[in-house]
Amino acid sequence: MKFDTVIIGGGLTGLISGIRLLQRGQKCAIISSGQSALHFFSGSFDLLNFLPDGSPVQNPEASIKDLAQQAPNHPYAKIGESKFVQLAKEAEKFLLEIGIPAHGSSSKNHYRITPMGVLKPTWLTMPNFAYNEDNEKLPWKKVSILNIEGFLDFHPEFISEALEKIHIETEIKYFNLPELDAVRKNPSEFRSTNLSIVFDKEENMDTLAKIFSENSKNSDAIIFPDCIGFKNTEILPTLIKKIGKPILLVPTFPPSLVGVRTQQYLKNYFTKLGGIYMLGDNVVHADVEGYHVSKIYTHNHGDIPFIAKNIILSSGSFFSQGLIADTKQVYEPVFNLDTDYLTDRADWYNSNLFDRQNYQQFGVKTNSNFNAIKDDQPIDNLFVAGATLSGFNPLKEGCGAGVSILSALHVAEQILTKEKTHEPITQ
Fold first, then answer.
1. Residues 6+ apart with CB under 8 A from 384
2. N or C: lower Cβ tally within 10 Å for the chain?
């Protein structure tokens, strides 16, 4: 099987790079082992919230120079300051053009409301999710926090306590729909994705409007868990219009409804452009000849190789087994690429769960073009993007989604420039 580019990993990074390459005429395939980190998506894409030393970031564009000084191996530092700004703007335009509108700008972070009620800086936020431009003052005097009886993946008390601290009056209300009783019988099924099946039905619209109105009579806005609008994207705007006040979504514990929806949307967009998405398969080994990948082999296809001009490795970090750790080392399992990690295992982690964990920044070594490094030499047609990269801490720096998206676009650009042709390979 021959392709212009084969992408290993079907999450945010793989899909963004694949869509960009397909838009430029390439023939692409994605090999995806299964569920991606998008299923934990908060509804917001972070670009850069904190510098490595913990300093808060208000303007990501203006902070790249400081970031590069503190962490010269950070993916953003490798991209470079001017290129970072260009790619961030390109990413905002790209997402909008493919049908994923989001509020925000790379020149100024805004603040989203987390499931704990905390205002957290972020880059881009999806429509209808609760956010504000200011981290000290919200535009509501009183909000109603609504939840479904028995729904344990959303905690109104935490949100209420946090909002009360910044002088916003809150009230917590619970409600039920008889149709939910069948779902409630199995607690493991009483999740956001299943609740949305009930809430997205047109015949429940008037009942929901009445419930929301009666439980928010004296409030300026309603806060509600993200469990509506999965299949029927018009249900929430219509509901907001009916009750005449904002309904602000807050993410729930996984599975993330907005994450699953975004994953499916990007996958469908990729395949509609002609991409081949192979779900439930994984790359087991590759033929590398003279620092050039000639063939890759997958579990499902056995001895039938994939042949491509270029390969993108976006298999993720430890969560998706794009990186593996044993008692002595951290390694990349497919190509056995060079990795960055601390030699003393005691330095990998901190006993304080909420402190900075060094293992978060372990990953595959690359050059400035994000070519993978093996035996201290770059592989000319193997590129690395997303969480597999070394040099950044996505949790403490708040840059995970940004690294995924910007590195995906950057690697796609490197491939297109390298090939200097948009003609697809013929079978």
1. 312, 313, 314, 337, 364, 366, 370, 371, 372, 407, 411
2. C
- pLDDT confidence of residue 422: 43
Q: How confident is the model at residue 355 (pLDDT cuts 50, 70, 90)?
A: confident
- Please answer whether residues 295 and 306 qualify as being in contact, where contact means their C-beta atoms are separated by less than 8 angstroms: yes
Residue 329 in tokens: 């080392």
* 256 DSSP assignment: P
Q: How far apart (Å, rounded) are the C-alpha atoms in residues 348 and 319?
A: 16
Per the listing, tokens 């970090």 go with 317
Average predicted confidence (pLDDT) for the chain: 93
Q: Which two tokens stand for residue 342?
A: 């601390």
- The encoded tokens of residue 76 equal 């953003």
Burial class (CB in 10 A: 0-12, 13-18, 19+), 33: buried
φ, ψ for residue 94, nearest 5 deg: -60, -50
CATH T-level assignment (fold) for domain 13-51+259-419:
FAD/NAD(P)-binding domain (3.50.50)
CATH 3.50.50.60 domain residues, the chain: 13-51+259-419
Q: Residue 277: CB partners within 8 Å, gap ≥ 6? A: 10, 29, 30, 32, 267, 270, 271
Contact 250, 154 (CB under 8 A): yes
> pLDDT at residue 427 above 70?
no
Count other Cβ atoms within 10 Å, centred on residue 168.
19
Residues 6+ positions from 348 with CB-CB distance below 8 Å: 325, 341, 342, 357, 358, 359, 362
Please write the tens of the pLDDT for every residue from 86-135. Answer: 999 999 999 999 999 999 999 999 999 999 888 999 999 999 999 999 88
Q: Rounded to whole angstroms, how far apart are CA atoms 170 and 233?
A: 28
The segment(s) of the chain belonging to CATH 3.40.50 are 130-250
Tell me the per-residue pLDDT of 264-316, one tens digit each, with 9 for 90 and over.
Answer: 999 999 999 999 999 999 999 999 998 999 999 999 999 999 999 999 999 99
43 half-sphere exposure, CB direction, 13 A CA radius: 27
| Residue range 10-24: mean pLDDT, rounded | 97
Q: CATH classification of 130-250 is 3.40.50, yes or no?
A: yes
Helices then strands, counting H and E runs in the chain, come out as 12, 21
First to last CA, the chain: 7
- Predicted pLDDT at 300: 93
Distance from C-alpha of 131 to C-alpha of 113, rounded to nearest angstrom: 6
Residue 248, CB-side half-sphere exposure with 13 Å CA sphere:
23
Q: Which residues lie closer than 8 Å to 367 by C-beta, 6 or more apart?
A: 373, 378
